[in-house]
Amino acid sequence: MPDILTIRDLHKTYPGGFEALKGVDLDIDRGEIFALLGPNGAGKTTLISIVCGIANATSGSIRVDDFDIVDDFRETRSRIGLVPQELPVDAFETVWDTATFSRGLFGRDSSPQHIEKVLKSLSLWDKKDSRIIDLSGGMKRRVLIAKALAHEPELLFLDEPTAGVDVELRQDMWDVVRELRENGVTIVLTTHYIEEAEQMADRVGVINNGEIIVVEDKTRLMQELGRKQLFIQLQQPLDALPEPLSDLPVELLHDGHELCYTYDTRSESTGITALLRTLQESGIHFNDLHTSQSSLEDIFVDLVRRTE
To answer: Could you confirm whether domain 5-223 is CATH 3.40.50.300?
Structure first.
């Protein structure tokens, strides 16, 4: 079975010469949650807009469920749902009419049962007769998701879906995303809340300056690029590192009250045993120690800095 989304050598150059995308290659697996991360202006929204038929590519090819997005526009567009950053809805329409109209736009038969299911899953059922203008920001965001799901897409793009949403609603929305994935919907999301990507995604892609710089399974990415650190709380503060520690990846923190040792978990030896022995030989005593693993955010920041 082919990937649900295949992008090859995709370029986008705007009038004036700005290259927003520079030969992007990307494959999205069917049924996964894929997080596309990147700083502002990296090309995330441009890439999504081209896949969804909102913008045109300068060159390259995109296939959705093995259909070409240009030659088979209706087929591909009917398989895609988009939750954009903005709120492009009629403020005076009701929630029910908004979702129903969106389904009709894609040529789907009327299905009140499906619209009811979608609205209930998003906790919008009691708001079905409310006008969009009367809803809170979080509820408006849910309406966008309802619109995107109204025509039963197989591939759903979430472009900053929780921007401006409070913590409780954000968690509810991620519960909905998990349920969608369980029902076979493929999710591609962009988010500035990188801890959400760390929590939700199966794979992570990082884009910067219009180029994909890494695509990797989330767990493997964190294992391969993540740092692990050992923090050692000292009994007595140090003014400076003693000579035996000067060549090690050790730094003093908190006015000399703590040592931080950075090591690679993939190496045959972490060096921790040798470090503790050196501390003992140097007469440095400690009260406690604990380890910390790099977060996905740490890895993301480091990757982006390397490509600046």
So the answer is: yes
